[in-house]
Amino acid sequence: MTSNDINAINNVLPAGKSGNRVQWIELVKEQVKNEGLMGMTCAAYSSKRIDNIVEKTQCVCGRHVREHSYTGTPKTELANAEQWVDEHADLVPVTVFGQLTNGAQFIRCSTENNAFQKLISMIVKNVGSEPRLIVSCYGGAEYFTMKDSLEREFMNGIGQVAATKNVWILTTGLNSGVSMLIGQGVHRRKALHDNTWDPVVIGMSSWGSIAECTRVILKEQSPGFTKSSELLESDQYRYASFKALNDLPIEPSAKTVWDNEDTKTLDKNHTHFLLLDDGRLGQYLSDKPRSTFVKTACAIPGCHAVTIIVEGGANTLEVIQHDIQAKRPVVIVHGSGRLANVLGNLLKKAGKENSIERDEVIHQLQLCKKLWPASKEEQDALVGSIGKILDINKRRYLSIFQLGQDADLIHTLFQAIHKVSHLDIKVWLKLAVHWNCMDAAHTLLKREEEPRIYYPSLFSQALRENRPVFVDYFLRRYYNPLEKTIFIYSKEQPKETKSKERSSNKYDEDKEWCIHYALHFIIHKLHNFTLASTGSKKSLGCLEDLDRSYSKWIGPFVESFYFEQSSCERLWRDISSLYACSKWTTCCSNQVSNTSGTTTQQTLDTESAIDVHMAKTFRPVKNFEQQAMFRDIFFWSVIGAALIAARMAQHLSLTGNNPYTRNTYGEHRVIYEEYARACIDACYQRDKQRACQLLLREIPLYGNMTCAQVAIASEITPVISTHCFNQILDRQWYGYLDAASLTTVWAVVKFTIHLASLGLLAPRFLHYRSADTRKYKNDQDNNEQDTHSNRNFVGIDDQIKQKFSYGRRLLQFHSSPVVMISYQFLIYIWFLLVFSYWMLFHMQTPNESIGWSEIYLIIAISATLIEDIRKFAVEYRTQMLERWRLSDIWLLIIYPMPYILFYVGFGLHVNSTGNPDKFTAARIILAIDLEIWYFLSLRFVSAVKLLGPKLFMIRNMLRDLFGIMYIIFVCIAAYGVASRALVFYSNLEFTPDSIAANIFYPPYWFLYQFVDDKTNLDTIISSNSSTANEIVEAKVAHVLLAFQMLIINILILSLLIAVFNFSINAVQEKNEYFWRYQRYELICEYFEKPMFAYPPLSLVVYVWLLIGLIYRRHTRFRVLKYLYTPSLDAMWTDFEDAATYDHARDLVEKNYRWHSKSETAPPPKPLNEISAPQTQMGSSDKTVAQIDALNEKTRQLQNAFNEKTAEMQGAIAKLEAQTQQVSSNHGSRFQILSHISLSLSLSLTDYDWNGLDDEGYRAR
């Protein structure tokens, strides 16, 4: 196995030596102890010998005398020097270092004693790995400005670069200009992406150039800092003087704060600060330390460097010169301002091989007033420096990035590094995938003799990092995703390292282990990453976990993707998932190590153990081919997969731990739904019948589910609202009957007559659907039907014959759901009538004997209970569970309620002879039960389009009502308790009946305008027997009553009406969707229901089914699916692929397809064929000639148009004169014609031909 696939998966550049991270402070202390790093300070004055010096005397280093911290013997001979020399400074121990509160590391040191090598070694140990790319970003600081679009592009690009492992970003580290912009870009990238790799952004600046307040804070946060209260008396004086001179508080540790508005402070988004000190204050750092640092870092094997120039001034030329001398690439961000614009313009005009004249350089510099110096010497020096940089021999190190012309900064950066660096091809390809540089990757692969050997690792990386352009690129080249890098590497190992469990057949052996490694990749690299993105701490460990997660995400209506499961095994799995849904079963105790520190040799040593682990953990029972791999990778490719993807995205959007994740998956769900809808519409336009079959066909690749099941389970409105979905509902609703012939009123009357004749007239006088012979054109389909014999159910059977016998037609009539529900409705009405008759007229006394009505009710309700149990068992057995939801599990308590109440009430009635109490209890229970049976009859309403969605309105309004009931209860309780505390309190008893009857019950009726309290209060107030206190209490209660009526009758009821109106409108907007949803539920219920299973006749049907079960050992059920056969599946798949090909390809071409530059634009003509001035002048002269020709043609057309307009105006004048003569006889018709003619003439004469420019002429 290779460590590139299992270990260090996130590494893009090859990892250097890595290990445990070491604390920065410990690293610095070690260097200080060994005197490896030293500080530097001005030694002209000593802090111990400043007593006789004037307090405000200033040193040449920029400090006041009393600010010097040097404690050695001062160099008095240099105290009065006018210029700084290196002898002013002296080496001192490093005392300023540590870690800021935001985690950034800092150190103040000198550049002596090979300091950069030690600093780089410290950073390597601190971050845990060596650098592979140093990106220096330099340019503008104080005067830096950039356009918003360019700034956004630059921040995104630099953020992506910083997110690459083993890449170090190097800036000045100041809170201004380019360094601040880079810090913001890195911080933004890190905030929006949960990266496991922390970026390394190093700020290198001069200690003396940062703000004084910042220097004080850095000293305070150093480990050796001593507070002023702990200093000696002499030191306290010096410290207080230093603070007074700088207007700082005496105790800085308590009040000195970081000023984020100061441009000379440090940027808070950097990770390391190297503050180099030469002993002076106010001096900026030259580029020599940066160049030395980069050169030292590049001495590490495999490390390269690149510099990005953003804006910049004359000092930035030093950065470019050093990089070119060191043969390091430089990327100039053209359009960022000042120097970058000057260099960009010159390079674009000169190209790669044309020389640049001095006059052109001067011209470009003069256009930038901020860059052009005033003195002649400075001008000549600036022009000369630019000329050296743009020398033809050095121009290969310069690259330009310009917004709007180049793809993005990351592509330009990649090309610049690739031009001058020499890394292994694998490193470049992995970096190209990580930076999404398809052009560069394609160029690299074309140069290889065997490019396909790189496909497995690159394809895996593209999947992990969400690079659809690369995925499409590899699949178009017929890459097999089953071949993983780890599998290819394992085949190359010696035979003795293989597991002994492998088979002797080489082909089967490779195929089997290929599947194991592919599933390992799917589980550990794709699905665990998806779980982590939602904030879940759970992870998948084996194939059983993956299968269980699919069942949870998609629904219980799909079969296992990988294992054959019996009904008992599936039942046990569902029960376990129900009671332990928050746990993941870990079937693998020993997981494959994913640590990046594992070497290849360690991997080889554990090869045998991992092979055994793979064989036990990732061995599917079902056939796992290339299509299955595509299924697990792409859940969005075709209709069924897109619907499953929408279902999974819906689940993940509900379980995400933060709003961003939930919104992201919610947006993905909408995209998948619209894609599925568009594919369905494309199929429906090609062939309506086959498109309907696609929605109901069984898909073995996705657990034998149907597209309609996923759409219903996920409530995917765009799919359910399609014409195709409505067509399948109509076809299955009427069964074998012709739906088109039953739409008129007369057809409905005839259908009612056929129902009344028990269907005996239907075979002769009713229209049936025409036969569909296309799908049975091969005789092998008849033989393939036997493949479902062991599944104990049959699916949809379209007509395959033109003529049937009378008996067959009669059975087809009675098997139609519309017929079955019609008979069921009539029998249910009869059941309610019998129940009502028994309760009203027969159940009079406890001593009544059992009559025919009781017997009928017992048989009918028992048959209904048996039917519900059979329906539950059949739906679970056939996995038609798309209407089952975990959120509706509480309904399991409601469903058996009518049966329990009936049997309890009937039992009490039977045993109530001579016991009136039991009889009363029986009547109460049975009355409640009867009311429930009446409400259950509303389910038949869903068959009617006009009334069906109203049930959803009622359900939503009940939900709203339950929410407002608490508000109503508070209002009722508030008035009831307060008013009864003032009046009527003498009638209260501390019992539940008294409290309910006197406190809560009367105010409740205020909702319905029954206000008895007003009459009672008026009686108390007007009564002569009432005392003054009672009258006052009654008047206060009157005021409370007024407020209660205001709140209840106006505010609460208005709110309730408004909420109900909102719920009604929400359902009304989706009226078609809700009705189709209900129709699907009814069709599924009555499609699988046996014929003539109407209670109490259903008992006979059940006996017949029981006899068949005993005789044939199984019972066949009907399911709303087109069952799978190989030939049918091939036909449906071919049709789906052909019908959706255009839409799918357009989508990929638009969003994900990579187009090479040769496909989109012709290659540019080399500039060396003609000189730059000729190119510019030739193009300009040609354009001017074209404009002159167009203007001349415009003038000719205008003259011709004016002549025609004059002729038309004359004709119109004659026509108007004739119209006026005839208008008296013909009314206003000719007036309308004259107005039209006049409007036409005005519109033509008012046309602005003079304003028609060159572009407008061509467009028109």
TrEMBL record:
The chain crosses the membrane at residues 818-838, 850-869, 889-908, 920-941, 961-983, 995-1011, 1039-1064, 1092-1111. The keyword Transmembrane applies. One of its GO terms (molecular function) is ligand-gated calcium channel activity. Residues 1156-1178 are annotated as: Disordered. GO terms for cellular component: plasma membrane. Residues 639-714 form the TRPM-like domain. This is TRPM SLOG domain-containing protein. It comes from Rotaria magnacalcarata.
